[in-house]
Specification:
single chain; 1 helix; elongated
């Protein structure tokens, strides 16, 4: 049994890959967060200008 060598993947490679994926995921998450913030800002500005009209035109869907 000692004649057989088992190769194990180095942790450094997998840790580096995970770190790169985390950074890419973080950047994507930040972009989505910024887009949501922009959308919410737009909604706020519409409500500041036309809150009464918005409420009158609001259509509830699905029995909510």
């Amino acid at each position: 049994m000692s004649d057989r060598e088992q190769k194990r993947p180095e942790r450094k490679d997998s840790e580096t890959t995970e770190t790169v994926e985390e950074v890419e995921g973080s950047e994507a998450s930040q972009e989505v967060t910024e887009r949501i913030d922009d959308l919410l800002d737009e909604i706020d500005s519409v409500l500041e200008e036309n809150a009464e009209e918005f409420v009158k035109n609001y259509v509830q869907k699905g029995g909510e």
